[in-house]
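Priority: medium. Attachment 1 of 2:
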């Protein structure tokens, strides 16, 4: 202690008749939790620092001094005293400090205690965690050819910390999710017991996770068909989905090695994408890859991913844990049938209108009922048709348009297509005429014709399909009555194929990734819209995306609204 302090203590003791309590400091424990700030200083200062705009403490102190001076109120506290008061409140009431300045989500992420989950209680394949991730690199849009950031949907095995299934496309949708799940099941070799899903709209699709209305279809949702239980993660809670940590590693280990890496944020971009970096742009020219190339690169990266160490099972690699729990394998054909998307449609004159085309089979002729179609989004050259009770009926191929002058200007394939359609048309016409004449000849009563079971007057499905139509026992609708009628040859017309001949398999027809892309395609057409296109517009305008287009002065707005 200094000499002057000792002299001051001696004087204080003498004046207090040597009572040592006078030497106790006037600050410390006996004022714990209190502050020297006046009521006006506290009110103005904490009103600013508690605002959601997160005003800096130094700025709030300066503004507080200025306001008090304008109002003529005393402010005896120094700026250092005010700062200590703010820091003290922050230390002792961090929950309120975080809630006031950052909101409820920050309170959950930064303050509330978290629950630790013991993954040693589950096995490989018990739980798959699914989520979507907007990639930090660019690919060529398969429909426009322009560079864009794709969406990656992944299924992540919780036990092994391995990404077992993934798919990449332009936007997240239930078809993309189904493809990623299919790839995950095949790699895993068995069907998972539980899938933990994100709360996104594509994951929460009713067709994907629940049951279609049994009055319309009777076909269960995809997860129900695969006997997988679904659990949805808490909204806006990253810790409830372990895959979020994986996406951080994925960004550092894979995305940054892509030649078209665009950065994880505005401040985290490659030098070649910064302003006035002409030299860096010349050194590092962007090489935008296509989606199949990215998928191949992901397959190679998976080996590195499997080589890394498991975070909780010390001394073991992630791939070793994954391989130890893989299943014996799964029937891919059965898996494809279970995972095909289902849509309710009505049979029309040309069969079922879907994805801008018609799907027709002789078994659809004369029917005007609702059916459930299921299709593979990777190959829409055919659809599978189900009855309303869920029974499988047949496989309907896509009906292509014919050359308007096939005989004179078309190629050999155009002529064959024309011959096929003409033969099919004549055969169906003969079929109806023959049955009607036999019925009228036998009874002469039109009521008998009206009572005939027209919905069963079709040939049995091919042998390679799992189910067939019920046999027809009525003499007017029996197998003999359903035999193909020989085609009458026209003059100068090449020989027609047999009615039973199947149409040649056409190439895979690609369709639009989103309804918005299909809408933009229809808007650019120079011809009147077809029946299926009009039906699509009616359904599209009922969606939230379609309502936005309806509010715009687009080329399809007036016509659709009038209809």
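Attachment 2 of 2:
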């Amino acid at each position: 202690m200094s000499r002057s302090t000792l002299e001051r203590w001696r004087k204080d003791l003498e004046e207090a008749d040597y009572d040592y309590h006078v030497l106790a400091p006037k600050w410390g424990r006996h004022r714990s939790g209190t502050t020297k700030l006046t009521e006006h200083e506290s009110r103005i200062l904490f009103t600013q620092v508690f605002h959601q705009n997160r005003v800096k403490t130094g700025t709030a102190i300066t503004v507080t001094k200025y306001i008090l001076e304008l109002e003529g109120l005393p402010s005896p506290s120094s700026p250092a005293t005010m700062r200590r008061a703010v820091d003290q409140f922050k230390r002792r009431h961090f929950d309120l400090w975080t809630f006031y300045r950052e909101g409820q989500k920050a309170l959950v992420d930064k303050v509330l205690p978290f629950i630790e989950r013991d993954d040693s209680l589950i096995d490989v394949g018990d739980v798959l965690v699914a989520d979507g991730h907007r990639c930090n690199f660019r690919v060529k849009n398969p429909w426009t050819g322009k560079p864009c950031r794709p969406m990656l949907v992944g299924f992540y095995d919780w036990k092994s910390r391995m990404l077992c299934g993934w798919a990449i496309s332009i936007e997240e949708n239930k078809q993309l999710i189904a493809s990623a799940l299919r790839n995950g099941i095949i790699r895993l070799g068995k069907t998972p017991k539980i899938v933990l899903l994100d709360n996104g709209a594509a994951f929460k699709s009713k067709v994907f996770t629940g049951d279609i209305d049994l009055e319309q279809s009777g076909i269960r949702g995809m997860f129900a068909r695969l006997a997988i239980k679904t659990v949805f993660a808490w909204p806006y809670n990253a810790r409830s989905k372990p895959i979020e940590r994986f996406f951080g590693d994925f960004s550092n280990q894979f995305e940054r090695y892509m030649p078209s890496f665009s950065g994880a944020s505005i401040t985290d971009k490659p030098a070649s994408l910064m302003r006035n970096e002409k030299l860096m742009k010349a050194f590092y020219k962007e090489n935008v890859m296509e989606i199949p190339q990215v998928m191949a690169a992901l397959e190679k990266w998976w080996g590195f991913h499997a080589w890394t160490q498991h975070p909780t099972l010390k001394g073991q690699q992630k791939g070793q844990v994954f391989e130890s729990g893989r299943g014996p394998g799964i029937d891919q054909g059965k898996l494809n049938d279970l995972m095909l998307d289902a849509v309710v449609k009505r049979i029309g004159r040309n069969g079922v209108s879907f994805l801008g085309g018609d799907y027709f089979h002789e078994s659809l002729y004369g029917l005007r009922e609702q059916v459930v179609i299921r299709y593979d989004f990777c190959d829409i050259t055919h659809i599978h048709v189900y009855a309303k009770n869920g029974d499988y009926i047949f496989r309907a191929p896509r009906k292509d348009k014919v050359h308007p002058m096939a005989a004179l200007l078309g190629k050999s394939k155009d002529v064959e297509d024309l011959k096929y359609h003409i033969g099919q048309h004549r055969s169906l016409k003969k079929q109806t005429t023959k049955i009607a004449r036999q019925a009228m000849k036998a009874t002469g009563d039109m009521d008998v014709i009206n009572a005939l079971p027209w919905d069963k007057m079709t040939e049995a499905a091919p042998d390679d399909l799992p189910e067939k139509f019920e046999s027809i026992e009525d003499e007017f609708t029996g197998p003999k009555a359903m035999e193909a009628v020989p085609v009458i040859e026209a003059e100068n017309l090449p020989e027609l194929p047999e009615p039973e001949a199947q149409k040649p398999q056409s190439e895979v027809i690609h369709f639009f990734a989103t309804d918005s892309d299909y809408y933009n395609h229809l808007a650019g057409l120079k011809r009147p819209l077809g029946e299926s296109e009009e039906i699509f517009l009616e359904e599209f305008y009922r969606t939230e995306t379609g309502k936005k287009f309806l509010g715009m002065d687009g080329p399809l707005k007036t016509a659709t609204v009038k209809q």
